């Protein structure tokens, strides 16, 4: 892959454990969301995303309780809502600031990202979590602040992760031909979409999962990737 000039990486199951998101971040947001909405109701950014959530649900007017119940239901259903992701990110910011948790990174990830960065590769993130949430996760990792390694971040405002057009937009935003971008993910459908847009792909299959042939190069760790 000597022609690769940028690496675009997913987060869950790729750089970080799905369990961290599922067992730490989601429960924290669910637990603190009611109080957060009540105490930040009048803030313009919170109002914007609450309005977007209500609009997404087809609700013309909603009480605080109705909006809170709606968002809690979406968390339980793991709904890929941009409004929900934005609000979760605000709640997680408080959690990181209070040191309630730090974000998990697989053992080799930080060193490998730094090595790629030092070798002149541009690094980007594409995750269903909001861009602010992505920056928080990499800014408060077990390995310290990794955000200086990244050149940019993309979330579902760019487009859904299983659609070819999303990756075409990302390549255009990065300013490189898709063939010079390597996309890393644990989800085959995301890799299929990236490849359909012309990107190179590698699937992360973390233990205890076993490597299998899904039509994409598959590795168990970042150390096995040589872009």
Order of strands, main sheet, comes to 3-2-1-4-5-6
Distance between the termini: 5 Å
Helicity level: 40-55%
Q: Which structural class matches the secondary elements?
A: alpha/beta
What's the CATH architecture name of the largest domain? 3-Layer(aba) Sandwich
Secondary structure blueprint with pairings:
Elements: E1 6-9, H1 18-40, H2 44-56, H3 64-76, H4 82-97, H5 109-118, E2 122-126, H6 131-139, E3 150-154, H7 164-174, E4 181-185, H8 188-196, E5 200-204, E6 218-219
Parallel strand pairs: 1-2, 1-4, 2-3, 4-5, 5-6
Helix pairs in contact: 1-3, 1-4, 2-4, 4-6, 7-8
Question: How does this model look, in words?
Answer:
The chain has 227 residues and is an alpha/beta fold. It has two domains: 133 residues, Rossmann fold (3-Layer(aba) Sandwich), CATH 3.40.50.1000; 77 residues, Orthogonal Bundle (Transcription Termination Factor Rho, Rna-binding Domain, Chain A, Domain 1). A six-stranded parallel sheet has the order 3-2-1-4-5-6, with helices on both faces. Helix 2 packs antiparallel against helix 4 and helix 7 crosses helix 8. The chain is globular and about 55 Å long. The N and C termini lie close together (5 Å). 33% of the residues are buried.
Question: Tags for this entry?
Answer:
alpha/beta; 2 domains; 227 residues; Transcription Termination Factor Rho, Rna-binding Domain, Chain A, Domain 1; Rossmann fold; six-stranded parallel sheet
Produce a short descriptive summary:
This protein has 227 residues and is an alpha/beta fold.
């Amino acid at each position: 892959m000597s022609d690769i000039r940028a690496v675009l990486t997913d987060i869950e199951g790729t750089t970080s454990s799905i369990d961290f998101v599922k067992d730490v971040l989601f429960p924290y947001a669910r637990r603190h969301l009611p109080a957060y909405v009540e105490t930040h109701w009048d803030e313009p950014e919170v109002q914007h995303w609450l309005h977007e959530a209500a609009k997404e649900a087809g609700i013309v007017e909603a009480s605080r309780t109705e909006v809170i119940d709606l968002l809690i239901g979406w968390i339980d259903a793991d709904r890929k809502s941009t409004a929900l992701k934005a609000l979760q990110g605000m709640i997680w910011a408080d959690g990181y600031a209070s040191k309630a948790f730090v974000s998990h990174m697989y053992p080799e990830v930080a060193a490998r990202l730094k090595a790629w960065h030092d070798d002149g590769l541009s690094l980007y993130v594409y995750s269903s979590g909001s861009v602010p949430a992505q920056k928080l996760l990499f800014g408060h990792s077990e390995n310290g602040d990794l955000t200086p390694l990244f050149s940019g971040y993309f979330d579902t405002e760019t487009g859904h992760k299983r659609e070819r057009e999303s990756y075409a937009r990302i390549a255009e935003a990065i300013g490189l031909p898709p063939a010079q971008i390597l996309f890393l993910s644990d989800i085959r459908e995301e890799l299929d979409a990236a490849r359909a847009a012309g990107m190179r792909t590698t699937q992360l299959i973390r233990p205890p999962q076993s490597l299998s042939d899904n039509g994409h190069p598959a590795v168990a760790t970042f150390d096995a990737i040589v872009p």
